[in-house]
Amino acid sequence: MTTDANLDSPRTAVSNPPVQPMQANLGPGDVVRASAMPDLPPPTRELTPVAKLIDVSKCIGCKACQSACAEWNDTSPEIEHNVGLYENPHDLTPDMFTLMRFSEYENPQTGDFEWLIRKDGCMHCADPGCLKACPAPGAIVQYSNGIVDFIHENCIGCGYCVTGCPFNIPRVSKTDHKSYKCTLCSDRVAVGQGPACAKACPTQAIVFGTKEDMLAHAEARVEDLKSRGYDNAGIYDPEGVGGTHVFYVLHHADQPSLYSNLPEEPRISPVVQGWKGVTKTLGLAAIGAAAVGSVLHGLLARANKVSAEDEVHAEKLVEGSESPTTPEKGVV
Amino acid sequence: MSRRVFSARGDHIESRRPVTVSRYRGITRLNHWVTAASLIVLLVSGLALFHPSLYFLTGLFGGGQVTRWLHPFVGVLLFFSFLLLFLQMWRLNLPRPEDRTWVSQIGDVVRGEEEKLPELGKYNAGQKFVFWAMSVLIVVLIVSGVMIWQEYFPDLVTIPVRRWAVLVHALAAIAIILTFILHVYAAIWTRGTLRAMTRGTVTGGWAWRHHRKWLRELAGRGESGPAK
Predict the structure, then answer these.
(1) How many domains is chain B built from?
(2) Start and end of every 4Fe-4S ferredoxin-type domain (chain A) (predicted)?
(3) Is the pTM of this model over 0.90?
(4) Chain B contact present for A307, CB below 8 A
(5) Most exposed of A67, A109, A163, B164 (fewest Cβ within 10 Å)?
């Protein structure tokens, strides 16, 4: 099967890309939200929401996704030392947008040893904390298909996205002082190809398509897992951030933190909401009111002026005809 | 030479007819203006990153990347510059009994009816408020600022702490801007004040009107400044 060039977004990552010429989408007309641009014009069309589903139960930890990611994005993650962990590199970096995280879990119910492997990376939240926190106009955009993307020429490297993200994903480069994370291969999706990681995954643990299709597929997977004894299997598509466009099937969906501290109830921190909400609005209003008020008072009210009499008193005091000691009435 | 209670070292009667009084030495004035310039740069660059409607101000510094880089360094400069001012001024800014009366009669202050107020030393309670507000806020700003200094201290604090730091930094910045407006406004509204920080001197009448205890102490010391 070949992806249909007439579709607004690819329906799968496994097929070959369309061979007919096609218009690249994900242009300015597809942006629904942009950082520090509250008056953004509405998008000119609505794309079909897409999603990447990561089925943790199918993952074999081969890291083909990591290799494909570095390959497609042309990044060269630094070569590190083996410290006895399978994780490599040690964390997400400005050059490694996705990372297999390995955790060892002894299931108290079954006594089984379980190796829980989770592909970490940007979740592409419907309500992105990075975008909310970012002060640079247009440095972070959200397209109508759900992809949240960093536009590097607008990035100023302040790290506010790190502060805003509920999943600890963005990494600021020490080299060019710009922030990096998974793009959901927006540059591939724009021309009818699925993300590189999904394309490379040998077990189809990573699949890509419309959010609707992926949810249906995830539900089928959960059903299957339940029939195999994973009673708590479920979908991780957290409501607190409005749902995500990268989401998981977990065998222990009741305990997401087992998977290398996947947040239980992620949401944009109320501290960040307060900072970017009421503080920003009221703070600027208070400063504006104080500035305008003092200018008006300065123009309209009588200034505090020194009188000629004051000068005479001062001269007398300095000449010594007025006592330099404080008269008693002055002391309170 | 008697102990100074209401005046700082270097304060003296500069001329007798008309009376002019030296209030700030050259080095103190330089120190003040370095601090003031830093605060203005911080205010403009900080506001640019605080509200989208003011982001255009980054253009004054050569763009967002430069603004992001410059702001924390100027913050460090401000901290040390203000520290020097603090060391020169803290003693005369300690609260005194007459400050309470001054505050309780703030209406007379605003109406300019200073004859109803107690005599004051070098600083009134309003000036002392500005001094201590600046001191506390600058400490809060430098500490919270280092916590969110991505370039050099990306991992100094955890992300939840960093969220608090950025909120506290914004709130303290708003407070210091309001204090700054109060400071500038009071210096302009009270005519004859600005020259204390430009030429370094004030008129005798100004000192008599606003800081009489300070003037009395200087007159009592019989100093008429350096050789005429």
Answers:
(1) 1
(2) 50-80, 113-145, 146-175
(3) yes
(4) yes
(5) A109
